[in-house]
Design a protein that fits this description.
The protein is an all-alpha fold. It has a domain at about 85-340: Ribonucleotide Reductase, subunit A (Orthogonal Bundle), CATH 1.10.620.20. The chain is built from 16 helices and no strands. It has helices at about 10-15, 95-100, 120-140, 140-150, 155-185, 195-205, 210-230, 230-235, 235-265, 270-285, 295-305, 305-315, 315-335, 350, 355-365, 365-370. α2 packs parallel to α5 and α9 packs parallel to α13. The radius of gyration is 25 Å and the shape is globular. Bound molecules: fe (ii) ion (2 copies).
Length: about 375
């Protein structure tokens, strides 16, 4: 690449009062266009006016120049590889960014740590194990967007900005669960190979499509269901607050993933087969999570109130969470335009009691996957 040399005569010309003003040549077409603030302030949606508001499906350039700007021919090519708007966009991404920025919270200040009291040892062990698993998984949802951010065309900047908020959200989730594990005398529990195999699948995804489906839709969807159950399983108001604040953030990430897939499939319905294949693989891996003690048992013990009560309840407590999280996942897929009922890659024993099991038996497809159970 040829670097532009400094114009050494420029300062002399300016000293003589000869301003260049060449930068004015491209402006003017939108002179007088005025973005109007809405009720909450001046939002990304409010400034999406004039040529700045035109979102190209396939940008003609790969530069960092803002949409609507006058771009000289010699601006370098940044080499972006994600240059198709539908590969990253969702209709609600501007609003999700605004919400993310306005609802940032601090794991240091906004959790009432000083109210944390010694609790029953069963519950402390369970809470620490759950915090360990959550702290282990959360930051993949920083690493994955970060891995893809620099490859995404800058004309889709609102989607990139939203992913930046997700990177920060997940750093905070990692932080808050580490703090909880260490704040009440318990400490870190056990990491999990099963969990990390799924995380690796996300990080190793060969396309943003694949990684986003596995992470935003499947993985974060399950975490959101768990946070939603936080009211039920939190041993004290401190953890309730943690789950509630994390849930707000997680709901944005899952909403982006669902609406993004919807946008993608509406523009290219033939991609449905690819997305089914990604989720087939993801579900196969994630099914093991439902039978991994360090993942299942902490939530069960917290819901039941003690180890003895959890043993007495058997699978009754974890069944509630299992069925709810699978149903919510199926609903999200449906909302995105992808019907996974009847073709889920989960064994019968994991699908039992869900509409996925009903659809499978209606379709008579239970035998092959049923053998896994
Ligand atoms: Fe998270
Ligand atoms: Fe998330």
């Amino acid at each position: 690449m040829v670097h532009q040399a400094a114009d050494l005569n420029y300062q002399a010309r300016v000293a003589r009062g000869q301003l260049d003003l060449g930068w004015l040549s491209g402006s003017g077409a939108e002179w007088g266009v005025r973005a109007t603030p809405s009720r909450v302030g001046l939002t990304l949606r409010d400034i999406a006016v004039g040529s700045y508001g035109d979102l190209p499906d396939h940008p003609p350039r790969r530069t960092m120049a803002p949409r609507g700007s006058d771009v000289p021919d010699d601006v370098p090519d940044m080499g972006y590889t994600v240059n198709d708007l539908s590969a990253v966009w969702s209709d609600n991404v501007m609003e999700l960014y605004e919400e993310a920025v306005s609802r940032q919270w601090s794991a240091t200040r906004d959790i009432p740590w000083s109210e944390l009291k010694p609790i029953d040892l069963d519950l402390e062990h369970a809470m620490c194990q759950l915090a360990t698993v959550l702290s282990e998984v959360e930051m993949v949802a920083s690493d994955f967007p970060a891995k893809w951010l620099w490859r995404i065309n800058h004309d889709f900047v609102e989607a990139k900005m939203f992913l930046c908020t997700q990177v920060m959200d997940e750093a905070r989730h990692t932080e808050v669960f580490r703090k909880r594990a260490l704040a009440n005398g318990g400490g870190m529990g056990r990491a999990s190979a099963v969990v990390e195999q799924f995380l690796k699948l996300i990080l190793d995804a060969e396309s943003y499509d694949e990684g986003s489906a596995l992470m935003h839709l499947l993985g974060e969807g399950l975490v959101l269901s768990l946070f939603r159950a936080g009211e039920m399983i939190a041993p004290s108001p401190v953890e309730k607050r943690i789950f509630r604040l994390c849930m707000q953030d997680e709901a944005r990430h899952v909403s982006y993933g669902t609406m993004h897939l919807r946008y993608r499939l509406q523009r290219d319905p033939l991609l449905a087969a690819d997305f089914h294949a990604y989720l087939d693989r993801g579900e196969e891996l994630i099914s093991a999570l439902f039978t991994t003690p360090e993942v299942v048992e902490p939530a069960t013990i917290l819901a039941a109130g003690s180890v003895a009560a959890a043993a007495e309840l058997g699978t009754a407590a974890s069944d509630v969470l299992r069925i709810q999280s699978i149903e919510e996942y199926l609903q999200r897929c449906e909302r995105a335009g992808l019907d996974r009922r009847g073709r889920m890659h989960l064994p019968d024993v994991i699908l039992a009691g869900t509409s996925g099991a009903t659809a499978r038996s209606d379709a008579g497809a239970g035998s092959a996957l049923g053998a896994l159970s």
